[in-house]
Amino acid sequence: MKLDLTGHIVMSGLINAHDHLEFNLFPRLGNGPYADAGEWARDIYHPDRSPVREHLRVPKPVRLWWGALKNLLSGVTTVSHHNPYEPAVFGPDFPVRVVRRFAWAHSLEFEPNIPLRFRSAPKSPFLIHAGEGTDATSRAELAQLDALRVLTPRTAVIHGVAFQEAELALMRRRKAALIWCPTSNLQMLGRTVSRAILNSDLPIALATDSALSAPVDLRDELKVARRYLPAARLREMVTTIPSKILRVKHNDWIAVETKGDPFFTGHVSLVVVRNQIRLISPTLARQLPSVRDFQPLTLEERPTVLVAADVKALTRAAKRHLGSDLYLAGKRVHPC
Fold first, then answer.
1. Is 0.70 topped by the overall pTM?
2. CA dist 181 → 157, 210, 212, 270 (Å)
3. Residues 52-70: tens digit of each pLDDT
């Protein structure tokens, strides 16, 4: 089958290097700025209170699917999910690829045996939250990881807001990488990674985190990141650099309208994952022989698209616990 993509630019699918997929129906929680992520977590996590209580009642597979749809709508075809891999959910029908070969730990505060986690996948990337704060304790976390011998070329540190020149030098020596989530940092901590680090030669990938701290998708995140870095650098941060950090190579691709810069203003009209169309605009869908495998999805301030997902069932399953108003990464989901 051939599609006429006149008026579009075709490019590789984007990579979101850090997300917690099951938390993207949540509202943003907390009233920062906080000194560190631990303080934020203790403030917002009350599973017996609203709104956390109601959101946790939504079945996890449903929440994971909504997290995938958030990414799909922004042209993301591969996501690094920073929680246990769910093989029963992340199968061939799941709309985006989820990185499977990696080791991870949440953080020094919440993981009792980081070296064991590091050794769990000895030839794969190792991802961990660190430096997610503005205090001295957060800054010291990189040296602690180094003392544990888990700061290596395999390691990608998520956040790194507290890091300064000494930490940059240490990451360079160990050939480690950084995953940058500016919206999450700004909302939680009131600041993000230093410009000295952002403008360094350190491998840095851009990512969204979850709606708990950042009600955005990757295209929103690119606009925020544009305040700090030139467009050409940001394009690398959502394509070639995370591909190297996460050690993933896929031939997935997307088509974006050529109105304006495709990374920042053009709407995603087509997403192809594993050689299958997962998202298509209604205009392009007219070229298909059938659209019965697709359902419409509309978020506020975004055009309607057709996705290869049972949007009606996912909406019912979420609204059963959350009521009539449903939000995905901060954007209202309009009725099907």
1. yes
2. 11, 10, 13, 25
3. 999 999 999 999 999 999 9
